[in-house]
Amino acid sequence: MNKKILVIEDEVQICSNIQQILSFSDFNAITANNGLEGLRLAKTEQPDLICCDVMMPELDGYGVLTALRQDPVTESIPVIFLTAKVDRGDLRQGMELGADDYLTKPFSTEELLKAIKVRLERVEKPTLIKQQYEQEHQKNTKLKQQIEINSQKLQESQHLAEICNEVIQKLLQDLGNPLSNINIAIYMLKKAQSDVERDRYLSILQQEYAREMMFLNEMKNLQTLLTPENAKILQSFNVFNNNK
């Protein structure tokens, strides 16, 4: 988008010449032939830069500059004074009011364009730095969020590993209990003196064998069962407590 330049100049021919120079240089040039009109356009158009004549009727360049700097809408717009006066006191007055530069009439096209370019670059540089800072800040914020997410995932993984260890220890204990009962039942079966006793211990063997197979199947399904969500649910119901 072309930069918008407001030219405030009461000499119509000079104003027209400056407008043509700026238009040929790809600027969007708007003009005013007195200070009051220029001040109105500055507020409504909010140009990127203002070139303002100093000596004008009704409201001179100093009055325009004073009004611009007192309005939050226009206070930061760069202003280049155009003047035929080269008195040191006049220059100092303009600078104290907040003028950004002076061009002494007559000035060349190159002088005008260079002065405008320098002022616009000084405005754009802090803006660019601010944009770069905001981009870096956004990147850092996203990186921090990703680190927090990864940290949370790591904690969940560690917690899940602890739960898995609890389950394995519980299943190992549960696997050992039927084996002990089976061993005892086999011993008692050998000592049985009657059919009733033998049937009793055979029944125990069948029950403990069924328990052992159940626990083995649980081991096979362990990987599918222990998702982080299921592990939290199981733990909330004390499924992993080593109750005998």
Core attributes:
244 residues, alpha/beta, Rossmann fold, 5-stranded parallel β-sheet, 8 helices, Sig_transdc_resp-reg_receiver
Written account of the structure:
The chain has helices at 12-24, 35-45, 61-70, 88-97, 109-191, 195-220, 222-225, 228-236, and strands at 4-8, 28-32, 49-53, 79-83, 101-104. With 244 residues, the chain is α/β, with parallel strands linked by helices. The chain has two domains: 4-107, Rossmann fold, CATH 3.40.50; 153-236. It has a five-stranded parallel sheet, sandwiched between helices. It is rod-shaped. The two termini are 79 Å apart. The model has no long low-confidence stretch (mean pLDDT 79). Residues 4-120 form the Response regulatory domain. One of its GO terms (molecular function) is phosphorelay response regulator activity. It comes from Nostoc edaphicum CCNP1411. InterPro entries: CheY-like_superfamily (IPR011006), Sig_transdc_resp-reg_receiver (IPR001789), WalR-like (IPR039420).
